[in-house]
C-alpha cells in the first residue's frame, strides 16, 4: 500500500511538468507582444522600437523560448510567479489570497454537495421508481438546468433585496457564504447525486446482492456492502468535482463580487496580465492533478483489486 | 411419501405489462431427492428458482402456492422468509466470481451469514468453515478466508459456496447452473462435491442445467422447460430412454454426444487419481 502511494505521487510529477510546459506554450502563442502590454499599462504615450527592446530585456523576453520556460518553471516551484504587468506587484500576493477565498467557497460547497449527493443518491436508489425517486430527480433536473447566473440573480433579488436577509455581495461574514454556496450546490448536487444513484443501482443488480439475500442476510448489511462498492466509483468523481468547481466559480464570483480567483482571472484576462493568467492556469491544472492523485489513492485504499494490480 | 417442496400453479409475470414468464408450473420434490430442471436459455429456469427463494426483482409478480415443509412460503411475510433463506433454503449460483462482494474478503460473507443464523462467535465460525472447506478439498482454508474473490478461481468459489451450505445444513439446496461457468476439470470437481454434499446432509436439491450429461449424474427426477412451460417431467432414466416431447428428444440426442465425452473425461480423472 505504501509503495503504491509513493509510486502514485511520483507519477504525477511528469504530468505536472507537461502541464506547466503546455501552459507556457499556450500563453506564449498569444499574438500579443508582452512588452507592448507592459508599456501600454504603464501609460507610456509613444512606444518606440527602442523602448520595446529595452523592456524585453528587462523582462528577460529576449532570451530563447526554452530558457525562458526553464527560468519560469524554477521560479514557479519557488512560488514566485513573477510580477503583474499591470500593477507591478508580485503575482503570488494577488493570487494567494484570491486562491484562499475561492478555495474556502469551493470546499464549503463541495462538502455540502458530497453529503447531499450521497444522501439523495442512496434514498433514490433504494426507492427506485417510487414517488420520492421521481420527485427528487424531477426537481433536481429542473434546478440543474437553470443557468447559475440567473439563479444567482434571482436569489440576490429575493433574499437580499426583497427580504433584506443576506448580503448582496462580497465576503464579509459567514452569511456571505449562504447565497453563493447555495447556487453552486444547486448547480452540481443534481449531477453528482445521479452518479451515486446509478452506481448504487448497478451494484444492487450484482450477483453478490442476490447471493447475500439468498443467504438470509438482513437488508441493512446488504446495503452496507452495496454502499461501499458504489462509493468507490463516486469517490473519484467527487474528488474530481472539487477542482471542477474551483475552476467554475468564475460566474458565481463575478455575480457575488467574491474576491477570489474567478474575479481575479477575469480582470487579468481583460487587461492581458500574462503572468497572472499563467499562474492561474497553472494553479488550476495543479489542483486537477493533486485531486486526481488523492482520488486514486482513496480508491486504492477502498478497492483491493486496484491495490494489487499496481 | 411427504413432499419437502410442492409448487402449485406457480405463475410469474411482469407486473407492469402482464407478460407471463412462467406459466402455471407445478412440481414436487421428495425429501432428500434431486430434481433437475433443464431447458434452453430463457426458458425460465432461473426465474423459477428465484421464485422459490422469493428473490425475483420487485417488478416481477408471482402467484400460486409454494409449500415448503407444508407451509406456503409464497404467503410468508418477508421477515419470516428471510430467516428461512440460508438456514432452510440455500442457493448456489453459477458465477462464483460475482457471488461475493468484490471489496470484502470471502470470510466476511461467511461470517455475516453464519452469525446471522446461528449467532456463533468469529472463532466458532472460523473453525466450522475451515472443517467444511477442507472437506470440499479446499487447501489452506484460513488463507482462503482472507482472500478477495478476484484472487480465487471460479471452481474454488463454487466450492466455498458448497462449504457454506455444508455448515448451514439446509433442507433444500437450489443450484442454478453451478458448473456451467467452469472448465471441464473444475466442473468435475464441483459436481463431485455437490454429490457428496447430498450424501452427507441427505439434503434435497434442485439442480438447473443445460447439460443432460451432468444432470444424469446427479438427478433423480427431471423437469424439462421450454418458453416458460414445463413440457416434460419424470424419472431420470425414463426421460433419457424414452423422451416423449419433441424438445426433450432433441435435448437427449444433442447432449448424448457431449455426455459421452464427459464420462470419458471423468473416467480418465478417476484413473489419474487412483
Ligand atoms: N429481472 C427480470 N425482469 C424481466 N424479465 C426477466 C427478468 N429475469 C428474467 N426475465 C425473463 O424471464 C425469461 C426467463 O429467464 P431465465 O433467466 O429464467 O432463463 P433461464 O432458463 O435461466 O436461462 P439461462 O439458461 O440462460 O440461464 C427470459 O425470457 C427473461 O427475459
Ligand atoms: Mg439461468
Automatic annotation (TrEMBL), chain A:
Instruction: Offer one Pfam family short name for this entry.
Output: BPD_transp_1
- Zinc keyword on record: no
Please, one GO biological process term?
transmembrane transport
Q: Which SUPFAM superfamilies match?
A: MetI-like
The record's section on InterPro entries has: BPD_transp_1_N (IPR045621), CntB (IPR050036), MetI-like (IPR000515), MetI-like_sf (IPR035906)
The membrane-topology field of this record reads: Multi-pass membrane protein
Which cell locations does it reside in? Cell membrane
Residue stretches making up the ABC transmembrane type-1 domain: 99-295
Into which family does the record put it? Belongs to the binding-protein-dependent transport system permease family.
Q: Which NCBIfam families match?
A: Opp1B
Q: What is this protein called?
A: Nickel transport system permease protein
Automatic annotation (TrEMBL), chain B:
Which one of the record's GO molecular function terms can you name? ATP binding
Q: List the membrane topology term(s).
A: Peripheral membrane protein
SMART domains to which the protein is assigned, alphabetical: AAA
* Alphabetical UniProt keywords: ATP-binding, Cell membrane, Membrane, Nucleotide-binding, Transport
What InterPro entries does its record include? AAA+_ATPase, ABC_Ni/Peptide_Import, ABC_transporter-like_ATP-bd, ABC_transporter-like_CS, P-loop_NTPase
- Is Nucleotide-binding among this UniProt entry's keywords? yes
User: What does the entry list under GO cellular component?
Assistant: plasma membrane
Cite the Pfam families for this sequence. ABC_tran (PF00005)
All copies of the ABC transporter domain together span 2-252
Keyword check for Cytoplasm, yes or no. Answer: no
Q: Where in the cell is it found?
A: Cell membrane
The UniProt similarity line reads:
Belongs to the ABC transporter superfamily.
- Give the PANTHER family listed for this entry: DIPEPTIDE TRANSPORT ATP-BINDING PROTEIN DPPD, OLIGOPEPTIDE TRANSPORT ATP-BINDING PROTEIN APPD
Q: What is this protein called?
A: Nickel transport system ATP-binding protein
User: Which lineage ranks, top first, belong to the organism behind this chain?
Assistant: Bacteria, Bacillati, Bacillota, Bacilli, Bacillales
